[in-house]
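JOB MANIFEST
job_type = single_chain_structure
chain_count = 1
residues = 457
[input]
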Amino acid sequence: MIENAKVSRRSALKAAAIAAAPAIFHIVPRHCLGGPGQTPPSEKLNIAAIGVGGQGRNDVRSLAGEKEVNIVALCDVDEKTAGPAFADYPDAKKYVDFRKMLEEQKDIDAVTVATPDHLHYVVSATAMQLGKHVYCQKPLTHSIAETRAIAALAKKTKVATQMGNQGNAREEVRLVEEWLNDGAIGAVREVHAWTNKPIWPTGIDRPKDTPPVPATLNWDLWLGPVAERPYHPDYLPFVWRGWWAFGSAAIGDMACHVINTPFRALKLGLPTSVEAYATKYTDETGPMASMIYYQFPARGSLPPVKLTWYEGGMMPPRPEELEPGRRMGNNEGVLFVGEKGKIMCGCYGDNARIIPETKMQDYKRPAKTIARSPGHYKEWIIAAKGGPQAGSHFEHAAVLVELVQLGNVAVRSSHRQSDNGYESKIEWDAANMKVTNYPEANRFLQTEYRKGWGSVG
């Protein structure tokens, strides 16, 4: 397990210090894995899955279908939700504590991580320090300090990594990027992205009753690094997404998918400011709906971009170019506004079209210039066996997740009064990892861990 009690701004900024941070486990020598930190191409990849209910089970199923993979261990703190996955792989060893699994089972080459958000960093970092390749569900981390730390650790250990934003491997994402590179709609200075979520309770405080912990659940391990609190079914399963202590609200759930297409196609990087307008939220849970405005600076020849995020049923104005009766996306979508037109697509770049359809039909599509993916999970397997990095490797994914988590920092810093009246914008100094115009917001960048759990420090 990772040492020290807190991921701080100072430690997250100092990659060298992060790389030198002590660990209880030693890094496996790279030559033992067959090349520069890799599994020999001739051998199967022995994978252990940590968190196997819900999406975790889907991840394991997707990987188990690959001929280069063995599923050798499954770990989950909830016997009930893990039951179906446990039944799928009767020969895999079963565990409750991921730390015990990683310490005792020496044949593990790689792990998948599909826990609630608050455990992503500590589980992934522990495995990486052991030289294990890591696939972690989105959002990669629960805080901005953790994004900096996990990126530095990925650079240091050189293990194969991949974040679970599956759409990044899709054909449609590449098509949109090629069209924009071709100037299909001219320079883009405005993007709108939306989701219908949250679909869980929001704007509420902690429950006051204390029902008994189910016999099938290890509540202490489910809490992991979070400060102790009584068990309550309001926290799990799934509804943990709405609680600041465990999840990352609607933007954390969906933006790694939805914003990924403009993030990639427009090379957005990090914003200079974020402004949020939200419905009621509390110190415990996020809002039911919000609109978040990101300002991105010019990037080389690309102009500045304003990206607006909508959630909870909020939507951008219907574009004039969209024909009457034509639906404006589905539950999630993206609208690119260019100098010469607009492109609308779905969550993963799917159903991408220039609007109106007459313009789409007239458009002469460019040649395919961007390398295609062999598949989201296949990318990671190839990387673990000595191939190129996966498309959403942690050094790349951490930037997208920092952007996403800045939205939550802005939401939690909104509804404030100052000498200038009501304020809702935070100015972001990415180089120094701090909010400059509202210092109180910087407390939301950190991750506190209870005793016995740790972080890179």
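[summary]
The first strand starts at residue 6 and ends at 7.
Residues 48 and 111 are 5 Å apart (CA to CA).
exit_status = 0
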